[in-house]
Amino acid sequence: MDDTAEFNQKIDKLELEIFTRLPESLRLISKTHFTPVRIAQLAAEWLTEDGPKKILDVGAGTGKFCIAGAIEYNSFFYGIEHRESLVDIANTMIDSFGLKNAKVLHQNILDVNFKDYDAFYMFNPYYENLVFNKRLNNEVSLSEQLHKQYTEHTLAQLREMPNGTRVVTYDGENKEIPYAYERVRQSQNGLLKLWVKG
Ligand SMILES: C[S@@+](CC[C@H](N)C(=O)[O-])C[C@H]1O[C@@H](n2cnc3c(N)ncnc32)[C@H](O)[C@@H]1O
């Protein structure tokens, strides 16, 4: 088997291992709401290529990015998530993989100080506030006003980070990224972007 075939097999295996650990109710929507393993690992590679760090997945869902990153890379992968039911699923999965370098915290982004972390991952976390049929479930309040608040908080926090701070975004309009961040790399037809504060 060549290297590419072996790599693809490894990714597919992890994708399936995560999928089978999800409750039935989340399996159907997992493609829409959770990052594919292949993309999560590319994002993690971009975020960690200049050394191990504390990475935050802003809106971690079931912890898929954290798990895929922590399995492959020598950094600590934190997630914050405001839906408690997803936090429980994420941490149960993290434990079942025996990972010591990943954890999902039950928090709203408005209570997060970005200075507690070094680098950030975002898969369009606030979009469901704008589009009714993109809602993950009814566990939290969603509104246009909250979208504005979350976006403004994220912008303000990222602005305060030191030069060299890395952010990877997957999908979305990237309105949470301040002008001081330069887009230095992209992949997946422009859906995945690496931003670095200059
Ligand atoms: C599109 S999903 C991405 C999940 C995960 N990052 C991944 O890539 O698999 C966005 C997640 O962000 C969470 N989220 C949205 N707004 C949030 C907020 N204000 N605070 C914490 N989590 C939030 C949602 O509950 C949802 O689980």
Give a brief description:
By secondary structure, the protein is an alpha/beta fold. 39% of the residues lie in helices and 19% in strands.
Give the helix/strand class. Answer: alpha/beta
The CATH topology label is Rossmann fold
- In the predicted model, the low-confidence regions spanning at least 5 consecutive residues are none
- Overall shape: it is globular
Proportion of residues in extended strands: 15-25%
In the sheet with the most strands, the strands line up as: 3-2-1-4-5-7-6
How many domain units?
1
What average pLDDT do the residues reach?
Answer: 96
Structure report:
Helices cover 39% and strands 19% of the residues. The chain has 198 residues and is of the alpha/beta class. The chain has a single domain, classed as 3-Layer(aba) Sandwich (Rossmann fold), CATH 3.40.50.150. It has a 7-stranded mixed β-sheet. Strand 6 and strand 7 form a beta hairpin. The chain is globular and about 45 Å long.
Describe the SSE topology.
Layout: H1 3-21, H2 24-27, H3 30-33, H4 37-48, E1 54-58, H5 64-72, E2 76-81, H6 84-96, E3 102-106, E4 119-122, H7 144-159, E5 166-170, E6 181-187, E7 192-197
Parallel strand pairs: 1-2, 1-4, 2-3, 4-5
Antiparallel strand pairs: 5-7, 6-7
Helix pairs in contact: 4-5
The chain binds S-adenosylmethionine (SAM).
Keywords summarizing the entry:
single chain; 198 residues; alpha/beta; Rossmann fold; seven-stranded mixed beta sheet; 7 helices; 39% helix; binds S-adenosylmethionine
